[in-house]
Design a protein that fits this description.
Layout (H helix, E strand, L loop, with lengths): L2 H18 L12 H15 L4 H13 L2 E2 L1 H11 L5 H9 L3 E3 L5 E3 L2 H13 L3 H14 L5 H10 L3 H19 L2 H17 L7 H14 L8 H15 L2 H14 L1
Antiparallel strand pairs: 1-3, 2-3
Length: 257
Amino acid sequence: GDETFTRIYVSRERRRGRREDERRDDADETLPDGLRSLWSDRLNEVMARHSQEVRFAFEVAAALGQTVDPREWRAVLTILGIEPPDAVLEAMIYDRLCQELEDGRWMFVHAMLREVLAQGARESERWAGWNAACAQHLANTSHHDHERRANHYLAAGDAESAIPLLLSAVLTYLRDRRDHIGGQRALFECIRALRSQRVSRDSPQWLEARILWTYYRHMRPEGYDLIRHVERNMAAATRSGEPHLETLALLVQGTVL
């Protein structure tokens, strides 16, 4: 769990790699397999003393995030019928694989440890199920972080359920947070989901995505016929008969022109 060790190890491996292959022009920016193996070995050493269900519980924790709310963790485990391994968590903290936080949550000490758990779940085809349970819990609690719930649906392979949540997340970023980076990230994920589901380009969801895309493109108008797209979106919103789309198109028109 020592970040200094991680940096030194990565630096050493990169220097060794450059010495072994002087012809390479670009150094590998990814963490080396050796480092992944170190975390995997440490995790397996602890998990070997417990049942497979304990590993499942920590894979669920990895699905919830780098930092875990124990109440959320317990709720998702209950959905899945898995007993919360409190004693093992204490052992993970003692072995410096996890760390308690002052606000009652706990976290994996390194992102690579969480990735080892996630990768094992993916390879064993458990990852989708864990994320589906996470999404179910967030839906049951009327969780307002729509992007987070959408990401669980995406990881579960349920892009259809993620699309309206991602569109809602983009609007929240615009209205409440003024966070353009977050809004664009959610919009890109939404567009990918629309394409993966082969949603008709004439659908209200695609129209809403196009209107929002026009808003973000007005910040970088080079090579983009802004007026034409605003007018086309406005006409399509009017034809749709959807009041919220007409309102959104008007708002974007007033903002970008």
